[in-house]
Amino acid sequence: MMKKTFLAACMALPLSACGADHVETVKNTAIEGMGEQTYGSILDNRTVCTNPQWSETEDSSGTTIVEYRCTLEGGVAWMQNERDDVIEDLRNQHEEYLQRHKESIERYQLGVDRARAKLAEMEQTGASRSAIIGQGQTLKVAEDFLDMNMDTHNNIVAGHQEEIAEANSIYDVTSVVEIYTWQVREDAPELTAAELVMVKESGEGKRRDYKTYQESDLFDVVAENDMEKVEGAVDIDTYLLQLQMDNLVM
Predict the structure, then answer these.
(1) Where are the beta strands (DSSP E) in the chain?
(2) Domain residue spans in the chain?
(3) Which end of the chain is more exposed for a tag (fewer CB within 10 A), N or C?
(4) Angle formed by the axes of helices 75-124 and 129-171, to 10°?
């Protein structure tokens, strides 16, 4: 009876309360190539990433999973600055295209005006019926080209507004979270993921892996507590500062 009571109580507690504390195992594990530096000594003492949280779960195969997550200081400002840059680029491209398209529309409008003036002249001077019909057809073609270009112009403007709205939506985040995940087998932790996630009011977005990392390189940079060095070494700019809008699923 006592054994059953202990098991029931144990099931209601975190895993670490009923056996091996795998979070502590991970935190106390030395990082290869970094001397006595451990995951815990680096990740629990950062200035660029606050509110560190560790958790322990099991996956469907029964493997212990330890996760560390923290909130990147300045992450929201990063995203806002990137949004502003993206929108500025979109507007510049839009203005350049509109300028070229405006010149095209002006040429078609000039063609319509000339064709219309020519038709009026022919009607006033008593040109033949066939000549007037032919000129009327020329005017219709010119008007059709102008209408087609105006439709294109309107579609471009509408598309640009949609791109601006999409950029605002993608980069409108409440926080940027950094996540590290380990699998623990026989008390031997293996780092399996280093990721960023953009958090929106509606919840967490898609996790995005750091482009490449070697543990010693990655955590050497993390230990520096320097945002610019973190950007350069683990290529955060690929996944945070220059996210490809068409590949990003929030």
Answers:
(1) 49-58, 64-72, 175-185, 188-200, 203-209
(2) 20-76+173-241, 78-171
(3) N
(4) 170
